[in-house]
Amino acid sequence: MTALAMLTRPGLRVAQGLLSVALLGAAVAVVAATDATWGWVAATAMAPDVALLPGIGRGLARGQLHPRAVPLYNALHRPAGPIVLMALASLGIVGAGPAAAALAWGFHIAMDRAAGYGLRTRDGLQRS
């Protein structure tokens, strides 16, 4: 059994919270040490939640997204996106701005998990 699998749900949320702090700190360090701007960090720290806008609709339960928004919401809240972007930055394919963006995007995902928010089911409800 892996160390991650042995964590309890509260322990996992604490770990996600610590990860979010580390990712935000790394994003700040990248901006401070390079020519990246704060706009990269601010925009991508908030950008995953743009998927909430098409999820607004009538007749939905409290906290439920409209099913049309679920694929976008789930795609923007998976760690694969920021990991790929950071890999491209690490390889020198993209610059410091996208590296800061990847870290801020990862921060958003980790902070959501620490707060108890995860991916959505097909009908737009939080997965348990």
Mean pLDDT: 92
Number of helices: 6
Helix content: 55-70%
What order do the SSEs take from the amino end to the carboxyl end, as H and E? HHHHHH
Write down the Rg: 16 Å
Largest sheet: none
Number of strands: 0
The low-pLDDT segments are none
Distance between the termini: 22 Å
Query: How large is the share of residues in beta strands?
Result: under 5%
Morphology: globular
Task: Tell me which oligomeric state these chains represent.
Answer: single chain
Structural class by SSE content: mainly alpha
Present the secondary structure layout.
Layout: H1 3-6, H2 9-33, H3 38-46, H4 70-76, H5 80-90, H6 96-114
Helix pairs in contact: 2-6, 3-6, 5-6
Protein described:
- With 128 residues, the protein is mainly alpha-helical.
- Helices cover 59% and strands 0% of the residues.
- It contains six helices and no strands.
- It has helices at 3-6, 9-33, 38-46, 70-76, 80-90, 96-114.
- Helix 2 packs antiparallel against helix 6 (96-114), helix 3 packs parallel to helix 6 (96-114) and helix 5 (80-90) runs antiparallel to helix 6.
- The longest helix is centred in the first third of the chain and has 25 residues, at 9-33.
- The chain starts with a helix and ends in a 14-residue tail after the last helix.
Task: Name its key features.
single chain, 128 residues, 59% helix, mainly alpha, 0% strand
Give a short synopsis of this structure:
With 128 residues, the protein is mainly α. Helices cover 59% and strands 0% of the residues.
